[in-house]
Amino acid sequence: MAWPFFSLAKSKRVRPIDFRMGEVSILVEATLEHGMATIWDADVLIWIASQLVEARDAGRATSRLIFATPHEILTFTRRGTGKASYERLRAALDRLQSTSIATTIRQRGARRRHRFSWINEWREIIAADGRALGIEMIIPDWFYEGVLDHALVLTIDPGYFALTGGLERWLYRIVRKHGGRQSGGWSFEVAHLHRKSGALSPLKRFAFELRAIVGRQALPGYRLALGQHYGCPVLRFAPVEPDLADLALRRLGRRPVEKSV
Fold first, then answer.
1. How far is CA 211 from CA 162, 188, 208, 224, in A?
2. Cβ atoms within 10 A of the Cβ of 97, count?
3. Beta partners for 187?
4. Within the chain, where are the H helices?
């Protein structure tokens, strides 16, 4: 969740992400035809992860072969279900399939890299009368094994899908990964966040967008603040105290529960 695997821009990106930090290296490459998979496209992967976790926890067999109707995915990710939404879903699947990732994460030894695409294959299942019956997808081992590893799966608030900006979506993911539910929260140097985001914007622009996000306080479940640490700008974040009435309603099934990712 915290690494630069996706484009944070809605415009087409073909410039690679080439990230190195310690023993971690990530190379994300896109095709000119489709562009790089975006952080909005990753909603499809969140849906897949939720289905795998649900099946695993229920004791059902799991597989890298996933079948879904477009309506299931679009409803889960809080998208519209009209024709335009279906077309955007198809474009997202193309980007997820054509984007290539090579990384040392979860590999033994810094020199070993695993190369994969987010979706190995996908196809639409069409009935004889032309009706769309669903979508079949094959996901890579790297993603499949990571989802089934209890230690690598976190929950996300449904409010995540309402975040419209690529940077604030990525920020939520990194805050959720590092801040968790620690009462003291966490902090990062702004320059470190900029580097880790993989964003194409210069640091000055990144910091400007960060200030706007802090001003909106849009990240569900967390409060953000900007400060200084030994003269370096830092972003601090901490979980918001839960609303006890809201928790009670969630237990009664009257509030949307968190989704697994």
1. 19, 14, 5, 10
2. 19
3. 236
4. 42-57, 70-76, 83-98, 141-148, 166-179, 190-197, 203-216, 244-251
Q: Cβ contacts of residue 66 below 8 Å, gap of 6+?
A: 48, 51, 136, 137, 138, 139
What are the angstrom distances between the C-alpha of 83 and each of 26, 90, 129, 134? 35, 11, 19, 15
Taking the C-alpha atoms of residue 57 and residue 55, their distance in angstroms, rounded to an integer, is 6
The pLDDT confidence band at residue 261, using thresholds 50, 70 and 90, is very low
Give every CB contact of residue 42 below 8 A, 6+ residues apart in sequence.
5, 6, 118
Q: What is the pLDDT of residues 138-155, one digit of tens each?
A: 999 999 998 988 666 778
Please provide the average confidence, as pLDDT, over all residues in the chain: 87
* Entry field: residues in the chain: 261
Residue 195's identity, in one-letter code, is: R
- C-alpha span between 70 and 91 (Å, rounded): 12
The amino acid occupying position 50 is S
